[in-house]
Amino acid sequence: MKPASVNKMSTVPTETLDELAARVVDLTGRITSYLTAQGLPQPSFARDGGLEEYPEAPQVKGPRMRLIETLWDMLHLAMGGKDYVFMNSIVPHNDAMILSVLDRFDFWSAVPLSGSASYADVAARTQLPETLVRRILRHAMTMRLFAQAGQSSDGPSSGVDAAQDGKSTGSP
């Protein structure tokens, strides 16, 4: 039996950005059509709305998994090979570290779900230096876990509603 060989380009998708974008539109349409037909809310970054959890129905699960895969392919093409490798060596580690710090120092309780807290208040509650709290929360805002105080709940830096886990999406 001949051993399997590996070719760098053997499994790389060949679609263009336009083709991937069309697939995203198609898959998104399938998912949102199902949600609408079932009377379920649409996914949203809005603080007081949106879909909390996707249904396990095959009409959603299959298209959703293909959508995620297509979006990763699209991200890879949009970034280009060099930037994709560089960013993926940094960003996931930083995101995981931020999530760990948020949990370890219970930032979720330091910011009210439907309100806001000053950086000084969060620093006092977490017992961390305010300069560090600012840096941690700024990164968490890029992950849509918190929002800058005064921004609309459905604006570009709004948070993901994590209330079901007791986690805050309030504004520092």
From TrEMBL:
Q: Which domain of life is it from?
A: Eukaryota
Q: Which InterPro entries match?
A: WH_DNA-bd_sf
User: Region annotation Disordered: residue ranges?
Assistant: 148-172
What is the protein's given name?
A: Uncharacterized protein
Organism encoding this protein: Phialemonium thermophilum
Organism lineage: Eukaryota, Fungi, Dikarya, Ascomycota, Pezizomycotina
